[in-house]
Amino acid sequence: MMEKTKGALEAEISKALTHWEKTYLGRGSISVKSDILRDMIIVSLRGILTPAEYSLCKDKEGLLSVKENRNSLVESGADELKKIIFEITGHEVTSFYTDISTNTGERIMVFKLAEDLQSKFD
Fold this sequence. Notes:
It comes from Caldibacillus thermoamylovorans. By secondary structure, the protein is an alpha+beta fold.
């Protein structure tokens, strides 16, 4: 069924999520790395905070505000993200998790799939 390699699929996911970030959030991350692991797709996005957001993160109130705003923005696009993953992999996303580190400016996204995608490549 899968004619693409695991690496090619991971690269396609990274490219699609970068495009989504630019169109939906107005700017993209510096680097994106996607990994298929069993029934999950784990995406690491680096360099997503603006200089102004880093400045806000210097105190706890600002840090929580940036984290909450950024997570709300991404959560509001969750249905679109799930659709992107489905279109690329052909696998339904059953749940989606995300968090951001205001320390490193890195976001992690985890897409939990209805079935094991990694086994298609073994």
